[in-house]
Amino acid sequence: MKKLLLASTITALTITSVVSVPQAQAANIAQSICEYVASDDKKRMRSFLKANKLKVRSIFSGIQCNGKNLLEFAAAKGSVKTGSLMIKKLPKKVVSANLAHFQSGSQPLIDAANARVSS
Length: 119
Description:
By secondary structure, the protein is mainly alpha-helical. It has seven helices and two strands; from the N terminus they run H-H-H-E-E-H-H-H-H. The chain has a two-stranded antiparallel sheet.
């Protein structure tokens, strides 16, 4: 009886710890990505994505910074390096769908997006 109780307790603790860890990690990843975009630190963003085995395509739809998607946020902050990186890595359809959102942003980003869409 003690063995059954001990086994069920260990199983319950393991399940609850596994469930809560990914949510906290996802929040940290989103916050880090937003910080790298805001500071226009392309090198650190690339190394962070590589270290966590992430791709811009896979995280783009799930991360918002200050209520904006990553491209809008990069345009608002004037982050040309990280914005250009994301434009290169995202599918043309996604870039063209978001083109209207950052027309008031940085001109180099607008040029990069137009070149990506038209190619």
